[in-house]
Each structure stands twice: as C-alpha cells, then as structure tokens.
Amino acid sequence: MTMIYLIRHGQASFLKSDYDKLSDLGVRQSKILGESLKDRKQLTSVIVRGDLVRHQETMEHCLKAFGHNIEGVIDHRWNEYDHMELLAKHNAEFSDHVAIGEYLKKQDHPMRALQESLNVSIMDWIDNKHSYSISWSTFKEGVWTALHDISNQLSKGENAWIFSSGGPISAVLIQLLSLKDEQFVELQGRLVNCSITKVIVGKKRLSLSTYNEYSHLDHHPDLITYR
Does pTM top 0.85 for this prediction? Predict the structure, then answer.
C-alpha cells in the first residue's frame, strides 16, 4: 500500500520571541516519533518538509532517532499560515508577542482568551474579512496541490513523510473528507504535536487512513501537547 504520512511538528516555543524553534519537550517528542517509526519498520523513500525551523528540527531529530540519512526536500506550501498576521488583523492590540503578553495579563483565563481570539481571527481569514499576505483559498489550494504532487512521485508500495503544521494538515482533511471550511478550526485544535495523519494513495484518488494518531506518546501524558 502506498501511503503519505502527514507529521505535525513537535511542540514549538509558544509565546516566546523565537516561537518557531522547538521547545525541549518538542525535541523529545520528535525523537520518540523517530524511535516509534523505527520500531514499526515504517520506511520511507520520500521526505518533504516546510521551510520553518520547527519543521526542520522535528525532521532532523526524528530521522536521527530512526537512523535515516535521507535528505528532506523543502516545499514552502507545507508552511503554517502566519498566526501573528491573522491576530493583528483581528485585533490591533496583537501587533507583536510583547503586546499579546500584555493583553493576556489582563485576562482571567489567558490561554482560553488567546485561543478564542485566534479562532475568531482564523474565521475572519476564511471569510476573507481583511487583506492577507496569502488568502485562505490560496493556502488551501496550495496544500492540496502539494499533496498531489507528492502522490504522483510515489510508486506502488512507497511511502512519503511530510513534516508540516496543523494548518496544512487540517486543510488536507477538509478536502479529503469534503468538509466545510468552518470545521478547519476544530480539526486543527485537536492535532497533537508529533501526531501522524495517514493518507492512502490509490489508483484514482487519495483517501484518509488515520487522523491524529499519537499512540507513541501515550505512555506519558506530559508528552501530549497541542501547541
């Protein structure tokens, strides 16, 4: 069976000035992922990643733990949307990380308030409420095209691993399952760091095999994170 593994990056440095870099826990998650894939004997002939630091670091730690020496191909279509741009478009107070930090200090439930603001800003983006550097429709189409480009490279029985983010993976799910765009927020919110979503490459179409599989992290609850 020909399969594409959509791998969400490990935990990033949320609310830090260098958000894109993996946290110590994110590094640990990535290594455990690689060890698990090795134990399952899940080989791959194609590796692709977005060009964000968290994609690169997740891939490197995973492959080192696995024992792979395949070079990953960079494809910017697997990059996450710019959450800072979306937040700033939604609320002028969210101009940078410092401003967001000041806003959160005023909230009774800071993380809940931030998540709610991000969810609304994503819906603004989907509804094309403001002018964005990349529109929702362009983002979604780019990810879908990138997935097909990879599927067309694979021969029967080959696998591909794609190191990406929650946004692109959720955009794929919207297309695969013919869901409404509004369901994007919920899909993305459920994706665990270093989880695997598998796509079957059939003769005529792509189809979902598994979504958000993270059994390799189940042995310790602290390993299960969503940001």
Answer: yes
